[in-house]
Amino acid sequence: MIVVSDVHKHFGGFRAVDGATLEIATGSITGLVGPNGAGKTTLFNVIAGVLSPTSGRVTMDGEDITGLPPHDLFHRGLLRTFQIAHEFASMTVRENLMMVPARQSGETLWNAWFHRARIRQEEAALLKKADEVLEFLTIDHLKEERAGNLSGGQKKLLELGRTMMVDAKVVFLDEVGAGVNRTLLGTVGDAILRLNRERGYTFCMIEHDMDFIGRLCETVIVMAEGRVLTQGTIDEIKADERVIEAYLGTGLKNKAS
After folding, report:
1. What are the pLDDT tens digits along the chain (257 aa)?
2. Distances in Å between the alpha carbon of 245 and those of 1, 49, 164, 230?
3. Which of 112, 111, 122, 197 is nearest to 165 (CA)?
4. pLDDT value at residue 247
5. Strand-strand pairing, 219-224 and 227-232
6. Cα(102)–Cα(232) distance, rounded to whole angstroms?
7. How far apart are CA 246 and CA 252, in angstroms?
8. Are residues 181 and 74 in the same domain?
């Protein structure tokens, strides 16, 4: 589905991404791991259109999407979440979901004046879908709660819910487990697995919790110094001396052995 070919992203003389090449298969849950400063989030931002690459190419389903802005990618079904959730804090959980779909009739003054019946129909459909999403995520009891009052884990579930409001094809999750307690992390993991298995979502996720990665991901890609170091199953990754060295350094690696 997503193919990244020799992508570079430089900031002056600093090469945050330095020739990364990888593939994310349709219907997969792929983990992207690596030490701090490996270039993971920068690569996410390039794929998702937040940053333009210095060079290289990104394709989705064989179509070149290099440098397309996030709103164009949104309409193609490519979404990205962030380590810190971006909710509308003063709005309810349900209202946050209803805001997601683009090109709603109520967004134009003309329709607000002359097509009120259409707007009411759309709002009723959005309300129904939002309630279905919240029930799927097991947070329907929070639908009238202000989003700013949610816990970190509940906000991560809300971000997953946003992707469901537009039937995303591929979702890039940036540290979905950050700041989430173990119980809610299990709920988040369950939701990701269900979206993958029942609705065909493709996921790529940056995560430092290796147990969480191991539970969800069949393929794990390791980055170091802006490049792809290796990839494999979680067990293969944990046993790879290059990965141990990238995380711990040569001296610590030798002590560990």
Report:
1. 999 999 999 999 999 999 999 999 999 999 999 999 999 999 999 999 999 999 999 999 999 999 999 999 988 999 988 766 678 899 999 999 988 765 555 455 545 544 567 667 778 888 999 999 999 999 999 999 999 999 988 998 999 998 888 878 999 999 888 878 888 899 999 999 999 999 999 999 999 899 999 999 999 999 999 999 999 999 999 999 999 998 876 433 443 43
2. 31, 32, 39, 12
3. 122
4. 83
5. antiparallel
6. 38
7. 10
8. yes
The structure tokens 């309810």 sit at 92
Evaluated on CA atoms 96, 139, 162, 100, the torsion sign reads: negative
Q: Which domain holds residue 50?
A: 2-87+152-254
Between CA 9 and CA 45 the distance in angstroms is 10
Name the token pair of 148.
């700013």
The b/e string for 84-116 (b: 16+ C-beta within 10 A; e otherwise) is ebebeeeebbbbbbbebbeeebeeeeeeeeeee
What pTM was computed for the model? 0.84
Residues 125 and 43 both lie in one domain:
no
Q: Are 145 and 236 contained in the same domain?
A: no
| Distance in angstroms (rounded) separating the CA atoms of residues 146 and 161 | 15
- Count of structural domains within the chain: 2
Instruction: Tell me which of 103, 127, 149 is where a domain ends.
Output: 149
Are 106 and 116 members of one domain? yes
Q: Which two tokens stand for residue 216?
A: 């969800």
Q: Outline where the chain has alpha helix (H).
A: 40-47, 70-75, 93-98, 109-114, 116-136, 152-165, 182-199, 210-216, 234-239, 241-248, 250-256
Question: Which of 128, 149, 170 marks a domain boundary?
Answer: 149
